[in-house]
Design goal:
The structure holds two protein chains of two kinds. By secondary structure, chain A is an alpha+beta fold. In chain A, about 35% of the residues lie in helices and about 20% in strands. Chain A is built from three helices and five strands, in the order ββαβββαα. In chain A, strands 2-1-5-4-3 form a five-stranded antiparallel β-sheet. The chains are: A alpha+beta, B alpha+beta. Chain A: This is Trafficking protein particle complex subunit.
């Protein structure tokens, strides 16, 4: 199992953080474009899922998968959006995303008065703790291929 | 891994007197810095707003509360979970407007004013106005524009302290301009 990469967006679509671990293929466009594309897709997907759902939903959009990877999504009521791409072996990354939001993002970014809101996160401590957490996840290690 | 590993139950508790006294020092300093009480009220509200926009994330991470679907649910969450978590009190909710877009929080004992007596020359000072800013800032982050104001205050001789909350509108999510 593998973790490919992670995006954190704020409500307005600013990419607050991006990191990647096992990403073998790049999008071939500048990162800024990729962030916009990703956020636009999430935004549309959420509204699509909301409109098409035949019943009331609690969580809304949570994940999708293709033949090669799975995208896991978590949105806080305040509009912070976390996106984690893994391979298909990871069935749910919900707890991991919740942990990243509650214990890393809120603790090290929101509570750090020197991290301005709605701006990419510069905190080195956040980056290293996040990296350590992801590397420690049971499904981090890439499958030998 | 639980959703709130290492958090939630073992919240760092601290003596609220330290908080109360620190707040008192802040208000005192603002009264020295500004000539009239209106400006102090404005500064307190602004500081509260800046606290609120950050506090909401901590609140959501710790309480696991999801989206509120109406203003009544919001009122309950504010009074029973929010105030309880941060100030250790549970205000009562009263005076709903017929349309359900306004209610009052009645604070039995406001911890901010534990040691305060307002001198006569600060009659228009809204001592705890920081709270209004916090409420406004926090709710704005969950897409609710509200107005919060003190309408009664025990410091001014009223029998209770009352914060009036008025729902203004839902803030809609929009795609950033120029993106399709």
């Amino acid at each position: 199992m593998t973790i490919h990469n992670l995006y954190i967006f704020d409500r307005t679509g600013t990419c607050l953080h991006y990191s990647e671990w096992h990403r073998r293929r790049q999008a071939g466009i500048p990162k800024e474009e990729e962030f916009k594309l990703m956020f636009g897709m999430l935004f549309s997907l959420c509204s699509f899922v909301n409109k098409m759902s035949p019943t009331d939903m609690r969580e809304g959009f949570v994940s999708f998968q293709t033949s090669r990877y799975r995208l896991h999504y978590l949105e806080s009521p305040s509009g912070v959006r976390l996106v984690l791409n893994t391979d298909l072996g990871v069935s749910s990354a919900r707890d991991a995303l919740q942990h990243i939001y509650s214990n890393l993002f809120v603790e090290l970014v929101v509570k750090n008065p020197l991290c301005p809101p709605r701006a990419p996160v510069q905190s080195e401590l956040f980056r290293s703790r996040l990296d350590a957490f992801i590397r420690g996840l049971p499904f981090f290690a890439p499958r030998p291929s | 891994m639980s959703r709130q590993a290492g958090r939630g139950t073992e919240n760092k508790k601290m003596n609220s007197e330290l908080f109360t006294l620190t707040y008192g020092a802040l208000v005192t300093q603002l009264c020295k810095d500004y000539e009239n009480d209106e400006d102090v009220n404005k500064q307190l509200d602004k500081m509260g707003y800046n606290i609120g926009v950050r506090l909401i994330e901590d609140f959501l991470a710790r309480s696991n509360v999801g989206k509120c679907h109406d203003f009544r649910e919001t009122a309950d969450v504010i009074a029973k979970i929010g105030f309880k978590m941060y100030l250790g009190i549970t205000p009562s909710i009263t005076n709903w407007s017929p349309a359900g877009d306004e209610f009052s929080l009645i604070l039995e004992n406001n911890p901010l004013v534990d040691f305060v007596e307002l001198p006569d020359n600060h009659s228009s000072l809204i001592y705890s106005n920081l709270l209004c800013g916090v409420l406004r800032g926090a709710l704005e982050m969950v897409q609710m524009a509200v107005d919060a104001r003190f309408v009664q205050d025990t410091l001014k001789g009223d029998s209770v302290t009352e914060i009036r909350m008025k729902f203004i509108k839902r803030i809609e999510d929009n795609l950033p301009a120029g993106e399709e």
